[in-house]
Write a structure and sequence with these properties.
The complex is a heterodimer of chains A (109) and B (117). Chain A has one domain: Immunoglobulins (Immunoglobulin-like), CATH 2.60.40. In chain A, 0% of the residues lie in helices and 52% in strands. Chain A has strands at 10-14, 19-24, 32-38, 45-51, 56-58, 62-67, 72-77, 86-93, 97-99, 103-108. In chain A, the strands form two sheets. In chain A, strands 1, 3, 4, 8, 9 and 10 form a six-stranded mixed beta sheet that branches. A four-stranded antiparallel beta sheet of chain A has the order 2-7-6-5, with no helix packed on it. In chain A, strand 8 (86-93) and strand 9 (97-99) form a beta hairpin. Chain B is mainly β and 117 residues long. Chain B has a single domain, classed as Immunoglobulin-like. Helices cover 0% and strands 52% of the residues of chain B. Chain B is globular, with a radius of gyration of 14 Å. Classes of the chains: A mainly beta (109), B mainly beta (117). Chains A and B meet through strand 3, strand 4, strand 8 and strand 9 of A and strand 5 and strand 10 of B.
Chain lengths: 109, 117
Amino acid sequence: GESVGLHLPTLSVQEGDNSIINCAYSNSASDYFIWYKQESGKGPQFIIDIRSNMDKRQGQRVTVLLNKTVKHLSLQIAATQPGDSAVYFCAEMADKLIFGTGTRLQVFP
Amino acid sequence: SAVISQKPSRDICQRGTSLTIQCQVDSQVTMMFWYRQQPGQSLTLIATANQGSEATYESGFVIDKFPISRPNLTFSTLTVSNMSPEDSSIYLCSVEEGSGRIVETQYFGPGTRLLVL
């Protein structure tokens, strides 16, 4: 097994439901944001990104929302599948990439 | 995106010894980064490695403990020196790639899982 995500907040959803993972970022000067997915035993995998001049961006089954007023970022996953089970990290870019604490997503059949 | 590989994928080491981790990228990249991910934690940047210059270390990380090499645009090494059990972590290599975009995204290797006894 892998120790990543052992002590992280956990979101449990049923297969087929939509998932919303939230992230608060710290630096109002950050102008680029990325969501990563990290499966057990693997490195972080890029999911979707958004620049600060946008408030919404959609990908395949995923949507990222950015609220700069309250420095909040969310990742929405539509029709969550068992393969979506992983730890999800948001990251903000100002002069360097800073990672959030991460959320473990557990998908139940 | 670039394909990034790391060697070794995992290792178990005795305290006091050193381990060198290799990162290979399948394309030339300017910016390479080394991160540490302690058990159950998020990722923390150790240093930025640019070819032709000394690595830039983040607060809390020093060159004597984590020497880095960047001999060319596709390769870098990170050495974890004089290891202690507190160095047990996942060490991740990352590259910045933009494919012509204004803002460049960072992609990660698979990581090296280090356990120090």
